[in-house]
Amino acid sequence: MRLDNRVAIITGAGSGIGRAAARLFAKEGARIVVADLDRVGGEETAKSIRADGGQSIFVDTDVTKASLVESTVSKAISEFGGVDILYNSAGVDIFVINPNADGTVVGTREEDWDRLLDINLKGAFLFCKYTIPHMMKQRRGVVINMGSEYGIVGGLASAAYCASKGGVVLLTKQMALDYAPYNIRVNCICPCNVDTPLMEKGLATSQDPQSMRRTWENIMPLRRFSKPEEIAAGALYLASDDASFVTGTVLSIDGGVTAGGTHTYWRAP
Predict the structure, then answer these.
(1) 161 is catalytic
(2) CB atoms < 10 A from the CB of 111, how many?
C-alpha cells in the first residue's frame, strides 16, 4: 500500500473531493483525520473508513479559525502520533456564499470577498502554519493544496474565486522553496468542473440547471465533468513516494480546459 501507516489530515473531507481522497488514502493504508465544518458529513466519512477496516477520526473544524486549526493538528498528533500528509481540500465558490452574487470586482460585496478568501486561501495558510512545524521536526512531509483552473487562468465574474485560487497556487510554489531543505514537498492540484455537492449548488443558481450543466460539459474537451475519485487519484500520486521528486508543481486535472481558451466562457451571461 502506497501510504501504509502514514497520517493524513484532509480538510473538507465531509463530502466531494475531500471525502473521495479520505477514502482512497485510507484504502492505501493511511490513518485519516477528517476535518470539516459539516459534522454530519464528516462523521459519515470517518465512519465509512472505519467500516472498511481503516482508521479515522472526525474533528469538527472551521479552517478560518486559528485556534480550531491548531487544535485539529494537536488532535491528529495525540491520536496517531504525527502528521505525514496535509491535504487542504476545503473550498467554496462565491455563488455558494451568496447565490445572488454578481462575481465581478464591482459587484462583489466586501463581506463575500472576505469570506471566500478566508476559506480558500487563509484556511490553507492556517493549516500549513500549524502542521508544517511538526513535519519539520520529522524532516519529512507532504502538503497538497487545492487550487483550480481559475488559479491558472482568469474567468468571467469570478474575481474573488480567481484571487483566492491564484493565491493558493503561488503560496504552494513559495512554500515548496522554503521547506524543501526539510524534505517537505508542497504541491497543488487544479481541477475543473468536478461532479460534487458544491458543483450542484453552483448549478442550482441557474434558471435552468440541466441546461447549464450541458453547456459546461460541452466546453470541456473531454465533454464531461470529472469525478471526485479522479481528483483524489491525482492527490494520491502527489502524497505517495511515486512523487518523491515532485515539489512546487501544479497538477491540472481539468479535462483539458486550460489547454485552450474555452474556459473564459464558463460563466458567460
Answers:
(1) yes
(2) 10
Residue 221 domain flag: yes
What lies within 8 Å, CB to CB, of 117 at 6+ separation is 160, 163, 164, 167
Q: Tell me if 107 is assigned to some domain.
A: yes
Domain assignment of residue 97, yes or no: yes
Q: Which of 92-96, 110-114, 134-138, 263-267 has the lowest mean pLDDT?
A: 263-267
Cα–Cα distances in angstroms (integers) from residue 22 to residues 28, 47, 90, 145, 162, in the given order: 10, 11, 12, 14, 26
260 lies in a domain? no
Interval 39-71: pLDDT, tens:
999 999 999 999 999 999 999 999 999 999 999
Instruction: Tell me the three cell numbers of residue 53.
Output: 477496516
Which one of the listed residues 87, 130, 150, 161 is annotated catalytic? 161
CATH of the domain at 160: 3.40.50.720
How do residues 144-170 score in pLDDT, each as one tens digit?
Answer: 999 999 999 998 899 999 999 999 999
User: Domain limits at 33?
Assistant: 7-251
Domain count, the chain: 1
Name the grid cell of 51.
467500516
88 φ, ψ (degrees, to nearest 5) = -85, 85
Reported pTM: 0.94
